[in-house]
Amino acid sequence: DTAVSQTPKYLVTQMGNDKSIKCEQNLGHDTMYWYKQDSKKFLKIMFSYNNKELIINETVPNRFSPKSPDKAHLNLHINSLELGDSAVYFCASSRGDRPHEQYFGPGTRLTVT
Amino acid sequence: AQSVTQPDIHITVSEGASLELRCNYSYGATPYLFWYVQSPGQGLQLLLKYFSGDTLVQGIKGFEAEFKRSQSSFNLRKPSVHWCDAAEYFCAVTDGNTGTASKLTFGTGTRLQVTL
Question: Chain A to chain B, count of Cβ pairs less than 8 Å apart?
């Protein structure tokens, strides 16, 4: 009965590879987010989707492409991975009418070697 | 642009002692303020939030926070800390926009260590 789940939990890959991280929420929320937490624990928003529509798109390299097949899922695809992409990626969700109350997933630790 | 400062990177307290974690924000209008806790290897859990009204807000796990507009602060407090409170604590701010998505701006976190 996990509210916001992410797969995989850990991902180790080499530079230049393409990888995807998946996120699913069973809270019935309309809005989903991706945040990046760097090695200094700094958290920054990357994207947000509401009902499959891109709402927030921060200054993120276009190697990062979010995809929302339905409002319960928001995946993050990363092309041509670089060392600097190593981080913990958090998915979050919120109700469309209460966007300030965000519920976070457990995170995916991506390590690029 | 909004910003959040958590001046203390690391705090150590004894179990049973009181706790105060500091948070200062920079925002032009009335902010929406949050405290999240991140246990090792876990995601972020919302402890409490302030939108408006009573400036002293109660949260889960016995935590409370007080909004002080004059000091641009939203400090987190707990009267008696338990060993399981050891974690990373993040203060966050967002604006009161009425859109369907909200950007949370986080501080850099305070790591709490609890000694027995």
Answer: 66
